[in-house]
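Sample intake sheet
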Amino acid sequence: QLDYEYPEPSLGVYVDALRSCLRARGADRVVLGGLSMGGAVAAAFTLRHPDMVAGLVLMDTNIAADPQGEDNPRNRAIALCDEGRGNEAVAAWSTTMVSPLASQGVRDALAAQLSRVDSVALGWIQRAMRDREDATGAVSAVEGPVLLVRGSDDPTCKPQTLSALQEERPTARIVEIPAAGHFVANERPRELA
């Protein structure tokens, strides 16, 4: 367990940290990209600081608000994390969240990474994601280009999710990377780059 006093769960914590980091490096305007939760943070950042975002890349992410209610799958993960069993909440991801065509090496590397999940940190993240605000307006808030990327086998980011975002911003480009799941950066890094 991490010895750290966590603030209230909110993507705003990441947004503030990102802004501070960019300002410290003298970056006033950036092309911002994020994968999965990182995409939700990038979208939230864009809504709060649109003047700093020259372009936006959302990869295998959903930026709408999570469904509310007890049947939200994040609630199960949060319950496991509260019991100190966060690794159980993500253990299957190296199988269920990757393409069936992912190499065993990719699966093993993800499994090793996921086995080290800190329950407190994961619980905090799951709460922040569950309670986030709808950020779909981010795609129309950017003056520059918008790129929407998904692995063709991602079970969480559906083609219709990206199509709906493209309706908000008709010039947004959608790219689907074949033989990749949710962890497209791990599964197909060259194609993603």
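Comment: Residues 11-24 form the longest helix (14 residues). Residues 78 and 123 are 5 Å apart (CA to CA).
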